[in-house]
Write a structure and sequence with these properties.
It catalyses: GTP + H2O = GDP + phosphate + H(+). It comes from Rhinopithecus bieti. The protein is α/β, with parallel strands linked by helices. The chain has a single domain, classed as Rossmann fold (3-Layer(aba) Sandwich), CATH 3.40.50.300. Helix content is 35%, strand content 22%. It has a 7-stranded mixed sheet with strand order 1-3-4-2-5-6-7, with helices on both faces. α6 runs antiparallel to α7. 38% of the residues are buried. Bound molecules: guanosine-5'-triphosphate. Guanosine-5'-triphosphate binds next to α1.
Amino acid sequence: MDLQRPDSYQGGAGPDFNQHVLHKTILVGDSGVGKTSLLVQFDQGKFIPGSFSATVGIGFTNKVVTVDGVRVKLQIWDTAGQERFRSVTHAYYRDAQALLLLYDITNKSSFDSIRAWLTEIHEYAQRDVVIMLLGNKADMSSERVIRSEDGETLAREYGVPFLETSAKTGMNVELAFLAIAKELKYRAGQQANEPSFQIRDYVESQKKRSSCCSFM
Ligand SMILES: Nc1nc2c(ncn2[C@@H]2O[C@H](COP(=O)(O)OP(=O)(O)OP(=O)(O)O)[C@@H](O)[C@H]2O)c(=O)[nH]1
């Protein structure tokens, strides 16, 4: 996907869209882990199989999600995973409110890179940025090299929520973005008497719900 024009508008909501606050969310991770595919699946509900075309630069998609009856506007930035674009993408971290950090469960080196990504995030992003770790390509079970427990352990070490996703089947894709939207909505509108929202607890409870009731 060629995303050289950062001002490009690639979908989103109606005419009143820009009158409202956009929550900037960035997808990061090694080249080929499935960032573009995850965004296309979330935005358009489809997966385009076939040859891999690496993202060039950075671009965004606007998307409105409804959480607890409230419209939350996400501006989701898809970055190029290739090393040569790193200095460009760092500049975008600073005003990000959320970062989805992906690895590919069939690619050990993409998992090994996660610590370096987190170091970069802590260096360039705001201290309170919401981070979520995603192990993508969960549909490719026969080629899996990273166990789900390893993803969970790493996420726990850094205190971030974790999900395995598939941009191909759509597994957990909506949940990942909805959890981010819920957290950002909670932070934006926090009232004194509002019960606190913990994104990690929410993700864990949703995971349990889907595994308990997948036969239904
Ligand atoms: N089976 C399967 N294939 C996937 C999945 N996600 C992505 N792919 C494939 O993996 C390849 C890379 O996907 P991209 O979405 O382009 O990866 P990217 O992270 O955006 O890569 P860069 O733009 O270089 O940073 C493509 O061939 C996709 O079709 C998935 O969940 N399951």
